[in-house]
Amino acid sequence: MIAEVAAGGALGLALSVLQEAVKRAKDRSVTTRFILHRLEATIDTITPLIVKIDKLSEKMEDSSSRKFNERLKLLLVNAVSLVEENAEQRRRNVRKKFRYMRDIKEFEAKLRWVVGVDVQVNQLADIKELKAKMSEISTKLDKIMPQPKFEIHIGWCSGKTNRAIRFTFCSDDS
Q: Is residue 170 assigned to a domain?
């Protein structure tokens, strides 16, 4: 199994291999079945996101996204071996079962955190890109359209007298 993940290179393949390992381990291990159910639910919820990340990273030639994909793939490879080793343990070896349960819980938390951080980084990158595009559009519109007349009115009361200040800004083109 681990050789398939290492040879494939794609995160989607690594995730599907992990899903298969979890399904096999659930059938073999009664004591860790509830943790494996939770891990399987986490994998099901993040699969579309991982596939999207994988497709986007193929289009981009960014070294940071490649590093992220390699780290995530390594995390998935380690998880496959962890789940398979857990399934191989006998029921009587309670101490090792509990160690594997703890390790699987830690993996699930790492997986959620890594994917959450990547989503936030991608959202920030998208926001920066949108801001740059909006600024560019605004600059183009300023060149095309005449500047409007701006007026600011400020008023206040002081005792019995009313006071007001009025500012008017006009463009030089008029």
A: no
At 89, give phi and psi (nearest 5°).
-70, 145
CA–CA separation, 144 and 136 (whole Å): 13
pLDDT digits over 131-174, tens only? 888 888 888 877 776 666 666 667 666 667 777 766 666 655 54
Does residue 99 sit within a domain?
yes
In 3-state terms, what secondary structure has residue 172? coil
Average pLDDT over the chain reads: 75
What is the domain count for the chain? 1
Cα angle 138-141-146, degrees, rounded to a multiple of 5: 125
The CA-based diameter of the chain, rounded to the nearest angstrom, is 90
Q: In whole angstroms, give the CA distance from residue 174 to residue 167.
A: 17
- Domain membership of residue 157 (yes or no) is no
Residue ranges making up the domain that contains 71: 10-144
Q: Which of 86, 101, 90, 105 is nearest to 21 (CA)?
A: 86
- Domain assignment present for residue 171? The answer is no
Q: Quote the tokens at residue 104.
A: 């699987």
> Of 19, 29, 41, 2, nearest to 98 (Cα)?
29
